Amino acid sequence: MSGRVWQVGGVAAVGGIGYYLYSAGGNPKVAEKKMEADAAKLRANMTSGMSGKGTEAQKHSEVLAADAGARLDNALKDAKQGVSKIDTKLESYRQEAEKTIEQKAHDAQVNAKHAVDSFDKNVTEAASKAKSSASGWFGGSK
Predict the structure, then answer these.
(1) Cα(16)–Cα(31) distance, rounded to whole angstroms?
(2) Closest by Cα among 3, 1, 38, 2 to 17
(3) How far apart are CA 64 and CA 70, in angstroms?
(4) Where are the domains of the chain?
(5) 55-78 burial by CB neighbour count: b if 16+ within 10 A, else e?
(6) Each residue of 88-122: pLDDT tens digit?
(7) Buried b (16+ CB within 10 A) or exposed e, 89-124
(8) Secondary structure of the chain in the HEC alphabet?
(9) How many other C-beta atoms lie within 10 A of the C-beta of residue 14?
């Protein structure tokens, strides 16, 4: 591939030199001056075209950068709003969980008090029956 590129490039260079020699009537000095003049003209056309294109490209890139900045700002704003909504929901869930825990703790406390009261009542009744039974053995009145 590389050898072929050199061959094509060489043929193009020889063809270019041949063109300038032919148009100069075979005089190498005149051909060289014509080639230099054409190169200068080509360079001037390229730089003048690029200076206008460069400004246009710069303006276009500034517009694209501003558009990208605006899109980024909107995306950040949307993300912040999403995070804010999530924070609000999480706070709501936390408050609900706290209320539920407090309610369950209160219910457990009430049930524990009832269980203790019931146990005390049963123990007191059993102790009273045991006392009356024991006093019957030792001749006490019922």
Answers:
(1) 10
(2) 38
(3) 10
(4) 2-124
(5) eeeeeeeeeeeeeeeeeeeeeeee
(6) 999 999 999 999 999 999 999 999 999 999 998 98
(7) eeeeeeeeeeeeeeeeeeeeeeeeeeeeeeeeeeee
(8) CHHHHHHHHHHHHHHHHHHHHHHCCCCHHHHHHHHHHHHHHHHHHHHHHHHHHHHHHHHHHHHHHHHHHHHHHHHHHHHHHHHHHHHHHHHHHHHHHHHHHHHHHHHHHHHHHHHHHHHHHHHHHHHHHHHHHHHHHCCCCC
(9) 10
Count how many Cα atoms sit within 13 Å of the Cα of residue 95 in the half-sphere of its side chain. 6
**At 5, which amino acid appears?**
V
Which pLDDT score is estimated for 28?
Answer: 80
Amino acid sitting at position 33: K
Instruction: Enter the tokens of residue 14.
Output: 């020889």
**What's the rounded Cα separation, in Å, for the pair 78 and 57?**
31
Residue whose pair of structure tokens reads 């063809």 in the numeric block: 15
